[in-house]
Amino acid sequence: MAVAKTYHSEDPVKHYCLQHSTPLLPIQEKLLKETLEMKQFRMMGAPEVIGLNALFIKNMGAKKVVDIGVFTGASSLAAALALPKEGTVLACDVSEEFTNRAKKYWQEAGVSEKINLVLAPATETLQKCLDNGEAATFDFAFIDADKGNYDNYYELMLKLLRPQG
Question: What distances in angstroms separate CA 29 from CA 33, 109, 116, 133, 155, one per listed residue?
Answer without folding.
Answer: 6, 12, 22, 37, 33
